[in-house]
Amino acid sequence: MKLKEIDREELYKAMLILENPGIAAKITNFIGTPIEKSIELLPENWRDKVGEITKTALLKATDAAVLTLKDNNKNRSSNMLHKIGVAFSGGVGGFFGLPALAIELPVSTTLMLRSIADIARAEGESINDPDTKLACIEVFALGGRGAADDAVESGYFTVRAALAKSVSEAAEFAATKVLTDEGAPVLIRLISNIAERFSVQVTEKAAAQSIPAIGAAGGAILNTIFIDHFQDMAKGHFIIRRLENQYGKDLIKSTYDDMLKRSLVA
User: Fold this and answer.
1) CA 86 to CA 57: how far, in whole Å?
2) Most confident of 13-17, 92-96, 142-146
3) Across the strands, what pairs with 145?
4) Which contacts qualify for 20-23: CB closer than 8 Å, 24 or more apart?
C-alpha cells in the first residue's frame, strides 16, 4: 500500500513537529542563556523533588482532565483557551518561584492534558476510548529532539517503543476496569515511566522560573512556551495515530524513518 500524497504531506508535517528541538532550546531562546546554567543553580533537593511533583501532577491531571471531556463533532481544538489558563498559572509560579511548583504544576498539567485531549478529538479520536486517554497521557513523554540527538534511534518512535509495554498493560486493564481506579498498579507504572521523561522538561521550566528577573510576566511566557510545545507534540502524535489506523503501523514507521533520515542528511 502506498500513502496518498496528501497523507504523505501530513506525515512529513508530523515528523517535522515531533523531531524539532526540545523545549530546552525554546526556553534558552527566551531567557537568553543556556538553560543548563540555570539547572546547575537549582538546589540539589529540588531536583529530587521535581520527579515526585511531576508524578503527582500527572496522576491528578489524569483524574481531572481527560475524564471530563466528551466526544462531540468538533474538528478544531481550543488551543488558545488552554494557553490562557496555563499562562495564568505560570504567572503565579513566576511570582512565587520554585516553592509554587507543587501548586502550579498540577493545575497547568491538567489544563495541558485537556488541551491534548481536545487535539486528539479534533484528529478524529474518541475521548471515551481508554486507548485514546492513554495516548493523551503518553504525549507528556515526548520532549522533542535534544541537541545531542543526531540519530533516528533517539526519535519519536523510540520513545513510544520504550513505553509500549506499560501502555499495553494499562490498555488491558482499562478494557475491563475504570482507568483511574485506586490501586491500579499498571496505570501507576505507566505514569511513573512518563513522569520520568516529563520531569526533564519540568526541571528545565522550573530552572528558568527560578531566575529572579523572570517574575510573573516571565512565568506566564514560560508556561505559554510549555503548553505550546506539548500542543505541537500532541498534534504530531495524533496525526501519526490517524495515519497508522489508515495504513498500518509498519508502513507509517518505515516511511517516517526514511523521511527523518533524509532530513538529517540534508
Assistant:
1) 14
2) 13-17
3) 21
4) 20/144, 20/145, 20/232, 21/144, 21/145, 21/146, 21/147, 22/143, 22/144, 22/145, 22/146, 22/201, 22/229, 23/143, 23/144, 23/201, 23/204, 23/205, 23/225, 23/226, 23/229
Q: Check if the beta carbon of residue 64 is closer than 8 Å to that of residue 116.
A: no
Which amino acid would we find at residue 67? L
Over residues 132-173, the pLDDT tens digits come to 988 999 999 997 665 444 444 458 999 999 999 998 888 877
How many of the other CB atoms lie within 10 Å of CB of 12? 16
Task: Tell me the three cell numbers of residue 45.
Answer: 533537593
Which pTM does this prediction carry?
A: 0.82
What amino acid occupies position 172?
Answer: E
State the Cα–Cα distance between residues 137 and 195, nearest whole angstrom: 10
Q: Which residues contact 133 (CB under 8 A, 6 or more apart)?
A: 62, 66, 67, 117, 127, 174, 179
Dihedral sign for Cα atoms in the order 193, 170, 122, 79: negative
Grid look-up 534558552 returns 28
**Pairs from 125-129 (Cβ < 8 Å, separation ≥ 24):** 125/238, 125/241, 125/242, 126/71, 127/66, 127/69, 127/70, 127/71, 128/70, 128/71
- pLDDT tens readout for residues 72-89: 655 555 555 444 444 444
